Amino acid sequence: MHELGIAGSVLEAVRERASRESARIVRVGVRIGPLAGVDRNSLSFCFDAMVKGSEFEPLTLEVEDGASDELALTFLDLEDS
Amino acid sequence: MTTTRVPMERKVLSENDRLAADLRARFRDNGVFCLNLISSPGSGKTSLLERTLAAFDPGRRVAVLTGDIQTDCDAVRLARFGFPVKQITTAGCCHLDGRMIERALADWDLAAIDLLFIENVGNLVCPTSYDLGEHAKVVTLSVTEGEEKPLKYPGIFFKAELMLLNKIDLLPYVPFNVDMARRNAETVHPGIQILEISCTTGQGVDAWLQWIEARSVSSRAASS
Predict the structure, then answer these.
(1) A76: which chain B residues are within 8 Å (Cβ-Cβ)?
(2) Which of B 184-223 lie inside 8 A of A, CB atoms?
(3) Where do the H-state alpha helices sit in chain A?
(4) Tell me: the pLDDT tens digits for B119-137?
(5) What is the pLDDT of residue B9?
(6) What is the pLDDT of residue B224?
(7) B130 to chain A, minimum CA–CA distance in Å?
(8) Chain A residues within 8 A of B13 when measuring between CB atoms
(9) Nearest chain A Cα distance for residue B22, angstroms
(10) Which residues of B touch A58 (CB under 8 A)?
């Protein structure tokens, strides 16, 4: 169950970027390879649990399939109000 | 309200990778050869280290970091051999990461160590994702676990340079197909090196010790 730690690392990257952006970050993309040892459902569950009630709301996670042991951040969606 | 997509190609664990790169540089600068030992709980990582440390001369500059969720049982077992041993207790965390290794090494003089074993938390999944700056990952699979493990947990068998097939003294008593286990490992990782050992009888331990010597020589040659 290290998906909690992985979700935390994704949120750290979002936080770091958010500090340099005026727009709100509403979505973050992650690509997971079959050999990365990370379960996407478990990651989504942990991610949503950490976001709920936090400064990150209403941030959502989008997971796509990657190659090999890849575990990468792919994009951020910024919303200008 | 407009939404803009910003591409962001970077590893999720880039912070751990940065720490691991620092550790790798320190190992190189101090001539430390480091192995990261990974297996499921009870496969025999600690018994393997007992056999290994028992085979070394007292003057051998070897040290061990051993990770567990709780207790210092393993460190107590391994300290009997007289080499520096430190327990890393993760308090619930299912793997070791670069930060834990950095902290554990803070009061050790790396220049006085030639060979460092890191015994990871017993787990075939999570430790796979965390680079600790090691030269190689070694996965242990015991014959009581079943020959399909490499297919069920491909990540670690893909990343490990060497698979130790442990507890082979039990082969007469358990339904384990060695050829199939080897085939499964090679399916996930063509070219993976495999040694059959028994930490109970000592069978195959010499080949493991020779592997360590040969691999540490090749890593030194590569870094000089």
Answers:
(1) 5-6, 8
(2) none
(3) 3-18, 40-51
(4) 999 999 989 999 999 999 9
(5) 85
(6) 66
(7) 10
(8) 6, 9, 71
(9) 19
(10) none
Q: What percent of chain B has pLDDT over 70?
A: 100
Q: Write down all domains in chain B, each with its CATH number in brackets.
A: 18-213 (3.40.50.300)
Extents of the domains making up chain A: 3-79
CA dist list (Å): B18 to A69, B15, B98, B103 = 18, 5, 9, 15
Instruction: Look at residue A37 in the predicted model and tell me its pLDDT.
Output: 83
pLDDT digits 0-9 by tens, A49-78: 999 999 999 999 999 999 988 999 999 999
Confidence of residue B22 (pLDDT cuts 50, 70, 90): very high
CATH 3.30.2320.50 assigned to domain A3-79? The reply is yes
Chain A environment of B12 (Cβ under 8 Å): 6, 9-10, 13, 30, 71-73
A11 close to A19: Cβ distance less than 8 angstroms: no
Digit-coded pLDDT (tens) for B45-56: 999 999 999 999
- Choose among B157, B95, B150, B139: nearest CA to B120: B95
- Considering only the beta carbons, identify the residue of A9, A75, A76 that sits closest to B12: A9
Indicate the average pLDDT of chain A: 92
